[in-house]
Amino acid sequence: MQNEEELFPEAAGEEAGSHRRRLTPEEADKLPYVHRLLLGHFGQPPRHEIFDPLTQFIYSLLASRTKTELTYAVVRNLRARFGAKDGWENLRDAPLKDIEDAIRDITFPEQKALHLKVSLEQITERYGSLTLDFLARYRTGKIRAWLEQFPGIGAQTSAAIVNFSTLRRKAIPVDAHHLRVSQRLGLTPRADAATTEERLMRLVPETWTAEMLDDHHQLVKKLGQTICTFDSPRCGQCPLLKICPYGQKHVGPATDGPSR
Predict the structure, then answer these.
(1) Where exactly does CATH 1.10.340.30 map onto the chain?
(2) Is the dihedral of CA 141, 32, 156, 166 positive or negative?
(3) Which residues contact 146 (CB under 8 A, 6 or more apart)?
């Protein structure tokens, strides 16, 4: 096992939002109001299985541009095929072609198989064994900077790993749906996922837990999948129309709906 200086050669910055300026009352209610409207429309998001950090790493690396249900099915197949109940060493040591075959149903299987195998090998080399449980000892920013050194792991994926896994840290995985909804609402200007997350985290109430951020992400993602779609948004049916400049531009202002 390497020491901390070897594992984390460059210390990451402070936790997201730890030194943010004080928000005005209107700014402070932006995300909570969006959250309340989405809860009223969709209801409480269903609870999903909480993976250990390494399993979440594998899931999140595979999940890009792949439907959630299919990604879960592929991870279950990997568990059955490579004996993950005893750890993921068999997956790490499997021939690349076998990994490609096992994840053939997801998008970009050849690229993701290579990224997955290389990442599992590098985690073992850097830590001394194949686990990410040790990350629980470190600050969130430090964890994410370390994770993003691996191939295929960017800001969205590192956020998913730290938020959705048993690490349960505060982060927002900004996928294409979250990016689109945030921009159309005017919550953030056009930017990449990392910058958008940083700006959104400034609006997150300090009282929100990692679990609430998980729920919030699921609600925004569902909105993007079902109503605020890329090609044919159904703005007239959107629960956020009354606060959405994009929607009002397309269908006119909302005239009813719940107040703050």
Answers:
(1) 53-164
(2) positive
(3) 7, 8, 12, 135, 138
DSSP string, 10-44: S---SPTTTTPPPPPHHHHTHHHHHHHHHHHHH-S
Phi-psi region of 26 (alpha: psi -120 to 50; beta: other; left: phi over 0): alpha
Residue 73 identity (one-letter amino acid):
A
Q: In which residue are the tokens 């703005």 written?
A: 235
- Residue 13, pLDDT > 60, answer no
Q: What is the pLDDT of residue 2?
A: 62
Domain 53-164: homologous superfamily in CATH = Hypothetical protein; domain 2 (1.10.340.30)
CATH number of 25-45+172-251: 1.10.1670.10
26 token code pair = 């209107």
**pLDDT confidence tier of residue 65, bands split at 50, 70 and 90:** confident
- The answer to whether the beta carbons of residues 1 and 127 sit under 8 Å apart is yes
Task: Give, in degrees to the nearest 5, the angle at Cα 218 between 260 and 106.
Answer: 155
Model pTM? 0.88
Mean pLDDT confidence for 203-226:
96
Per-residue DSSP letters for 179-244? HHHHHHHTSS-S--HHHHHHHHHTTS-TT--HHHHHHHHHHHHHHHHHTS-SSS--GGG-TTGGG-
